[in-house]
């Protein structure tokens, strides 16, 4: 994963500050459709100004959770508070929230301007002010020229920005975005990610974004909640989620990962030692885990944290070092992916930057190579 | 080639079967002679005579009024029914209602007519309304069976309408009633127009149901035609039938144009959705 968060880390983050009150509080919310549990006892606290991502595969309940915040679905159980107010029984048209729909839901019989002005009209804002605010927001999304067009006369990217403008023009405190970039092609999506973050920071609106694209979630958000089958698997900053996944699901869902199975043989305050048949070596990890010696655990090691060499690493104690044969090499330009078959039969994925030209690369197909990684690279997973 | 020839013949024969009687009717409406099947030269005198015939004109006027009123009523009721079936989720007995709304489409007209007549008679005895049978009862009767067609048209349009449009409007602060009038109604307007035209045409056509529920002095045009034909076909009736056909054909033509436009719009919407809109 070469992706870095767009935003710079700043100040004390609100979720670490016990004095902060969450802007949105979701308390043990469950939603069932018949016998099917779409959202299962979800609890979340989201703070003012956050760019919060709900990340999960298709059908994991992200949209349903968002629709409960907007008021289109009623939680079967649990409570939702926005700005301290219980949202139970408050219809969508009275919530201080706006939503950008996955399908954009632009009104086909109205021009771009009329679409954007719609929300202001409902609030009884004066004509002159409507004109001014619509103009300003269309300029912000760079659609000043397109006000008179109908939605079907716009490209996909332009429609996306109309939908964004329409949901922002009422200056909501909280904006819900359902797969806002899902329908755009890759290039446009990357550019729009930056625009979205810029607009969000400029207006200071709290964003909750639903996405199934982990790169998108990693680059844009301040925090991510990973959802799986209606349950929140983990909540944390992009770095936390990537570097310290708490479960196999999260480790495997975000980026790619090598999983080694093993048994805890040494369990100390500052390290653990795990004997792994899979890896063909002992795994030494420099942090403690809350599992007793003898327990079976998984160890996740990211492909980019493994070093490849033709010579055995110097002054090694045999821990976190194994060897195998290179079976596949995928050249991606900036990095190459090596699939190495260990003596134990397990295939390990390694990514390495291409520091030299491809033709000069020392490691090639069917070479015997040594793999090694540092004590901090592995993450012990019990679930 | 030979195959094609046979097919073409079959096609011609089929169309001839459909349209020769109508062509003959139009042709003989311009016949000079009083004898319907003997050509006596071209003339428009039957049309002129038709315009003098107060009974026919009265019946035509009644038919148009009934058709317009019942079409309007059935559009209102049919839209409500279509909306309920397409939008209000899975309420109890929705499948039953969904099936029942289409029943009048296949119900024999004599049964519809008879049952409505019984209803009106019973109502008159019970509450004194409707007072006798006439325009009101015909209009109500026509509304009941044309409404089913309208409801089906509206429902199918609503099913293909992206529900998130309505949700988006609500999200932006519009109350449900406002959403209906400002978003839903304008978008489904073509379906409503074609529903109205269809209802209008059906009402204008009907002779069976109207015969059951009409009273003395309230005879619709098809009823007049039907009864006068019993005493022999007159060229005047041919002229009248030609005019009616023009009205009905125009109605159907406009309805299908509107439907075609709506279909194109729907396709475009769908494409938009696929391309990311
Ligand atoms: N109105 C509904 N009725 C029945 N099932 C639903 C409804 N809405 C969503 N679901 C089901 O809930 C699950 C989660 O859906 P959704 O929240 O849309 O997932 P996601 O947005 O993560 O792809 C899906 O399996 C879906 O079929
Ligand atoms: Mg979804």
In short:
Chain A contains eight helices and 20 strands.
Describe the structure.
- The complex is a heterodimer of chains A (383) and B (277).
- Helices cover 22% and strands 33% of the residues of chain A.
- Chain A contains eight helices and 20 strands.
- In chain A, a hairpin with a 2-residue loop joins strand 9 (223-228) and strand 10.
- The longest helix of chain A is centred in the middle third of the chain and has 18 residues, at 186-203.
- The model of chain A has no long low-confidence stretch (mean pLDDT 91).
- By secondary structure, chain B is mainly α.
- Chain B has one domain: MetI-like fold.
- Chain B starts with a helix and ends with a helix.
- Chain A binds chain B through residues 70, 72, 91-93, 97-99, 101-109, 118-119, 122-123, 151-152, 154, 156, 159-160, 166-167, 170, 182-184, and chain B through 162, 164-165, 167-175, 178, 183, 186-187, 265, 268-269, 272-273, 275-277.
- Chain A: InterPro entries: AAA+_ATPase, ABC_SmlMolc_Importer, ABC_transporter-like_ATP-bd, ABC_transporter-like_CS, Mo/tungstate-bd_C_term_dom, P-loop_NTPase, PotA-like, Transp-assoc_OB_typ2.
The CATH topology label of chain B is MetI-like fold
| β-strand number of chain B | 0
Q: Give the CATH H-level superfamily of chain B.
A: MetI-like
- Shape descriptor of chain B: globular
Low-confidence stretches of chain A: none
User: What name does CATH use for the topology of the largest domain in chain A?
Assistant: Rossmann fold
Structure class of chain B: mainly alpha
Q: Please report which band the strand proportion of chain A falls in: under 5%, 5-15%, 15-25%, 25-35%, 35-45% or over 45%.
A: 25-35%
Return the domain count of chain A: 2
Alpha-carbon Rg of chain B, integer:
23 Å
Helix proportion of residues of chain B, in percent?
over 70%
Please indicate the count of domains of chain B: 1
Proportion of residues in helical segments of chain A: 10-25%
> Given this structure, which CATH class of the largest domain in chain A is correct?
Alpha Beta
User: Tell me about the biggest sheet of chain B?
Assistant: none
Average pLDDT score of chain A: 91
Q: How far is it from the N-terminal to the C-terminal residue of chain A, by CA? A: 23 Å
